[in-house]
Predict the 3D structure of the following.
Amino acid sequence: MPKRLLDCTASDFDRMVKKDLLFAIGASEGRVLAAETIGTVTPLLGDVTNAELAAALGADILLLNLFDVDQPHIQGLPPTEPGEVIRTVKRLTGRPVGINLEPVEAGAGEVDTLWAMTKGRMATLENAQKAVQMGVNFILLTGNPGTGVTNKAITDTLALFHKHLGDQVVLCAGKMHASGVLGEGGENIITKADVKAFADAGADLLLFPAPGTVPGITTEYVRGLVEYAHSLGKLTTTAIGTSQEGADVDTIRRIALECKMTGADVHHLGDSGYTGIAAPENITAYSIVIKGVRHTYRRMGMSINR
């Protein structure tokens, strides 16, 4: 019998295929929290991965940013074969795991010490196939700061991935900030035309900036995008990707409630409260806003051996 993601245990997640995950998310009625972490930096707790910490604080889904499929490494993991890194994270956390891949166009973007693009992070079909073989549940097509990812590039890549991998992995698409692209800032980050293009190209879940995180992005605007995506049969997520995952708890609570009012199915917290993870207290605070203390503490306390 299908379950809400709220009610799923580690063994439930382990048995799930794509359609089960999509059902579980939708059935949870806006009470799913996805936490993004970076594994290439020193973990906040040293010898415990940021992914494990995020899971312990109430995250339902884990998203790995800057994950290179050619050099799969997450600091804080016990010794692990490269091809088993994703499965090890899933085993240690009892959570579904996704990664970001970036549809970077040739010559676009800027060089930066942290966000500098590597071959194994590019949204190529070969990299996506490697990710699926490693056990990822989700692939998010998006852009990190300054990488130059455009909505057209996301759409074209979605169509390719959907054709070859559409029945194997949940395909997510969207932008939480402009990614360094002039002309795709503010409310032009994502438009209804982009929603339609992403949906037609095979996206299962569409990602929008959370209200209040990008200039000009209001609750009403995102609500319109969410409503339109739902009318196309697609799930949605709101995302905090502008370092406000490191804001004070009161601000996080306000953003969380605004995101809930948009009708989003998944709530995303970024990785740059501290570098590599949201401020820990904000993960739990956000979870409590969208699903209360009972479901939050249940997720935090549930053994991964169940």
Q: What stands out?
A: The chain has a mean pLDDT of 93. The CA atoms of residues 244 and 273 lie 7 Å apart. The radius of gyration is 17 Å. The first helix runs from residue 10 to 15.
